[in-house]
# Entry
Amino acid sequence: AQEGILRRQSLRESAARTYARALPIVPVRARGLTIEGADGRRYLDCLSGAGTLALGHNHPVILEAIKKVLDSGAPLHVLDLATPVKDAFTTELFATLPRRLADDARIQFCGPAGTDAVEAALKLVRKATGREGLLAFTGAYHGMTAGALAASGGATDVRVTRLPYPQDYRCPFGIGGERGAEIGARWTETLLDDPKSGVPAPAGMILEPVQGEGGVIPAPDAWLRRMRGITADRSVPLIADEVQTGVGRTGAFWAVDHSGVVPDVMVMSKAIGGSLPLAVIVYRSGLDVWQPGAHAGTFRGNQLAMAAGAATLAFVRENRLAERAATLGARMLGQLQGLAAAHPCVGDVRGRGLMIGVELVAPDATADVPPPAPDLAAAVQRECLRRGLIVELGGRHNAVVRLLPPLTLTDEQAVAVLDRFADALAAAER
Ligand code: PMP
# Structure
């Protein structure tokens, strides 16, 4: 059955299909960290729906919440009408927000995908400021619809001014760390303040507190506070894209919580829907300039996603899974750094919480920073799969192996994941 399904899909699906190419498996059952293929093989899933499954696959509290809605006879589709399910989700979500935002926040249900919420955020700040231009960052990923795409790294759009995202490894200024980040911040100030720079007053700045698809690059907290200061001083709304970093993933409920930065707009999706599609923006009420009907969409009221999402948010909060992600993530990062010391093909290991990246390089004794090795990264991914471990690739050169395990990962599972990864690395290197 598995071979037939894979063959038919590869013939019928668009050439754009992505994950399916690198992961030729046919999942038929899943629970927690584990996926079972149609051929009976089991895999440890450290892709987690690209960071969506905070509680892993089919967590009992999520299944229970979904069944409860189904059994209650509640309508599954009511556009954006108020329902008890929506009320419960909103209450739960607001309880997780930074205090200063929660006290004065509005929520707009977008959806169904992260990219839809990004579009809504860009549209909102443009309307609120009456300005067009956006500030976005190198290596950013915000989605695949026109506005989100334009704000993503590599895209060119006259309305988007690209600023350097701070990075230690391959720092564009060659100095790395907080000093490199500070230079980037000053560069941003100069661009905004010098009339000769040609950068018009922007409608907003959009950033990821940790770049995910860009290769797991955590921004220093000090830099985030600098960006908050720079934007606040110039009345430029700051949009934090927490689509991937949210709901405990980085070791805080929201990644901005690490720095204490309170953005004007937060973009949320992935984990907030507890495996089902859901996307919202939350913003300070002062930005709520929209006329009734100014933003719409048929699928903004997914009741099952809201119920699954509320259960997820409550479970993460009650079980302190953000703290768990911080401690377990730090331990795994340390172990991977140990592995890197023994493998010259590992150029860098970085991350925050359970958002971890391992950058593979072609060892080159003459280079300060060796060139990225996308082919080796693909080989590591293949060797991982052969050993029953699912990982994702990312980064600007596609040379970063990404680990995004569920926050429910146990100590024993973490050991199994790292053992398989170490074996795969050794095999790919040969
Ligand atoms: N923003 C970020 C930071 C993301 O990581 C993603 C998805 N990887 C998106 C936006 C887009 O979300 P979606 O794929 O659901 O449209």
The first strand starts at residue 27 and ends at 31. The pocket of 4'-deoxy-4'-aminopyridoxal-5'-phosphate is lined by residues 50, 113-115, 118, 141-143, 208, 212-213, 241, 243-244, 269 (CB under 6 Å).
